[in-house]
Amino acid sequence: MKTAHTPRKRFGQNFLQDAGIIAEIANAIHPQPGEHLVEIGPGQGALTAALISRDIRLDVVELDRDLVTGLLAAFSIYPDFRLHSADALAFDFATLARDGVPLRVVGNLPYNISTPLLFRLLEFAPLLQDMHFMLQLEVVNRLAATPGGKHWGRLGIMAQYHCAVEHLFDVPPDAFYPPPKVQSAIVRLTPYPHSPWPECDEDSLRRIVQASFAQRRKTLRNNLKGILSDHELEQLGVDPGARAETLQLLDFIRLANHLSDA
């Protein structure tokens, strides 16, 4: 779909235009007949065109109303194409799920809303088959991080609590118009059909993780002051003098379960 649309900074628009990269993303997603895809921020429809067929359902969520007419003109010939002119941060993705068919969510996410949108989508994890996103490389590094490194933190812990995370491949700035000033990457998040983690109170997990990383350079003793005592941490096998980035996900689950039982 070609339009004279000028990318808007306030929507964080960088339109993907490299045909090779578009094909590589479509191959990674590999939609199958009968599946239900949801694309966030289709923009000018470059990836949409590579994914759509008469054998799948495709809902797209687009905030920029100036793009709606072009998207409808290009894709309304497909009977199971639906466009939602809405803000993905406020959109209720549960309204799209029906007939027990899980949603496959894809999108080139604007860098300025990617983190809150990822947290929002994790709320719908039980309804999702998988998610494929174009994100800033730094965000993908945080999602796929392991304990002990500078990228390990709240985003990766909460994502990995719900999903298996795969950093698929990087995308250079010149694949977009206009070129962003940062590197990008494609990530796949696959919600666990059966969680590998012990049962956990998620509200307590969010609270513990957020507090633990409130000031990265401070120890757990300082960050968790008023939440868990040194004695409680030691009883749970955690060094109060350690920093949060050294803890495993299982450690945070153990702390959260202790907090919820207290």
Could you describe the 3D structure shown?
The chain folds into two domains: 9-191, 3-Layer(aba) Sandwich (Rossmann fold); 202-261, Helicase, Ruva Protein, domain 3. It is elongated, with a radius of gyration of 20 Å. The N and C termini lie far apart (57 Å). It has helices spanning 19-29, 46-51, 68-75, 114-122, 137-143, 154-162, 202-212, 220-223, 230-235, 249-261, and strands spanning 15-16, 36-40, 57-62, 81-85, 103-108, 128-136, 163-171, 176-177, 184-191. The longest helix is centred in the C-terminal third of the chain and has 13 residues, at 249-261. The chain has a seven-stranded mixed β-sheet with strand order 4-3-2-5-6-9-7. It has a two-stranded antiparallel ribbon with strand order 1-8. The chain has ten helices and nine strands. The chain is of the alpha/beta class and 262 residues long. Helix 4 (114-122) packs parallel to helix 6 and helix 7 (202-212) crosses helix 10 (249-261).
